[in-house]
Design a protein that fits this description.
- This protein has 432 residues and is an all-alpha fold.
- 77% of the residues lie in helices and 0% in strands.
């Protein structure tokens, strides 16, 4: 069995490096596994359709297209411009202030859109020219935007958390709430990193000429930020208070985003059609990966791979922290090779039983896996945020990757902190 699994892994890597789409590569591996390795099945080919349908025909996946649509409509409504304009106004006269404004804007926009790519693309278009104009180096500018965009999959609502909740059979609402404090921790980590960066390399963060704006004018102009904050309150507040389910909260968020877009006078039929089409494309892409990976997961379950991993850990008498470190290293390597959704659906069903056996909370593991997905988004060669920022900012991939590298270290430190103190992730869900 071990040799067969190794050969399947090698074939999967070959298919991925050949340029084949991840969903199709997983589908091929899953089908071969059903036919060649699951010898006890009478009709493995016939089981394929059942597995695929069962994987996507789940009510827990219902919030997915609604949250994607919400993010698309918020981009149409130019909520990113509103956030960044307000925050940079308050922070532009402090050292690295516009960089901090970008990080905080990413965090808030992430709490509305739930998308890492949308956050990076939106802030890349808005913030990058202003940051460079204000004296921030190009590599720090691009790194801060790419890393800030990763908050889109940790701070709720998060598409990645929806997938995890579906895979792990845990409350999506609890997964959402578990990401709040770790998301704040990541935001503060990025701000601290920029402050240290400015101390070590002062030429990377030069002070622009101060701009004087009266306090009254700042307060008046800050009123605009109340509308996007209202979307966050409507979505997360409803889930936390138990008023809405994640699906209902997603519908409320999409409706609020639609109303805001109309109020901003930015929504046209053409833009609405584009947002709807993008929602269908993104949702279909994710569900295709989930469907294909479910077949691979069935093969792993049939071959009792999760049980074998758990038994190996028990017999080896390894510390649970050594095992988690090994899992984190695995996710770090996978993050450089495949996209976060694929990485999650391939591994969670296999690794989660061992994690639970060691005494870790599956909700805590949701945060750790999501954080590793964040790191995967800014590590080459497959880091999607790197390519998004490169495209919208017309930058070189080398500049973006160099600027993102220190933020990878900050995220790894955050993983270590949350592993040492799991209550950071589990406290809020425990009081719901």
């Amino acid at each position: 069995m071990e040799l067969s699994l190794v050969l399947m892994l090698i074939l999967l890597l070959l298919l991925l490096f050949s340029g084949l789409r991840v969903a199709f590569a997983l589908g091929i591996i899953g089908l071969l596994g059903l036919v060649l390795l699951c010898q006890g099945l009478q009709s493995p080919e016939g089981l394929l359709g059942t597995l695929v349908w069962s994987a996507v025909n789940k009510f827990t996946l219902t919030p997915l297209p609604l949250f994607v649509l919400m993010g698309e409509l918020l981009v149409v409504g130019k909520m990113g411009e509103t956030l960044y304009g307000t925050l940079s106004m308050w922070l532009q006269n402090t050292r690295g202030g516009v960089c901090h404004a970008t990080t905080i804007s990413c965090a808030i926009f992430a709490a509305m859109s739930g998308s890492s790519i949308a956050t990076s693309a939106t802030l890349g278009r808005i913030a990058a020219p202003e940051m460079i104009k204000q004296g921030i180096s190009r590599r720090l500018t691009y790194g801060a935007i790419a890393a800030g965009g990763t908050l889109g999959i940790r701070i709720p609502p998060s598409v990645t958390m929806i997938i995890y909740g579906n895979l792990a059979a845990v409350s999506i609402g609890h997964c959402f709430i578990a990401g709040v404090i770790p998301g704040i921790l990541a935001t503060l980590s990025f701000i601290l990193l920029v402050a240290i960066w400015g101390r070590i390399l002062p030429n990377e963060i030069r002070m622009a000429s101060p701009v004087k704006i009266r306090l009254r004018d700042k307060l008046v102009r800050s009123i605009k930020i109340l509308s996007p904050m209202g979307v966050i309150a409507a979505v997360l507040g409803g889930i936390y208070l138990g008023v809405t389910t994640p699906t209902e909260a997603a519908a409320v968020g999409a409706l609020c985003a639609l109303i805001l877009s109309i109020a901003q006078r930015e929504l046209t039929l053409a833009k609405l059609w584009k947002a709807a089409l993008s929602t269908v494309q993104v949702t279909s892409f994710i569900l295709l990966i989930v469907a294909s990976a479910s077949v691979v997961s069935f093969v792993m379950q049939y071959l009792r791979v999760p049980e074998a991993i758990t038994e190996y850990v028990i017999e080896s008498h390894l510390s649970k922290y050594v095992v988690i470190t090994a899992f984190v290293a695995l996710y770090f390597i996978l993050g450089m090779l495949i996209d976060p959704i694929s990485m999650m659906v391939m591994t969670v069903p296999t690794l989660l039983p061992t994690v639970i056996h060691m005494g870790f909370d599956p909700i805590w593991f949701a945060v750790v896996v999501t954080m590793m997905c964040e790191i995967g988004n800014i590590t080459p060669p497959v880091g999607m945020n790197l390519y998004v920022v490169q495209g919208v900012c017309n930058a070189s991939l080398g500049e973006v990757a160099q600027g993102s590298a220190p933020f990878v270290l900050a995220l790894l430190i955050d993983v270590a902190i949350i592993t040492a103190f799991p209550i950071i992730a589990t406290w809020l869900p425990s009081i719901m």
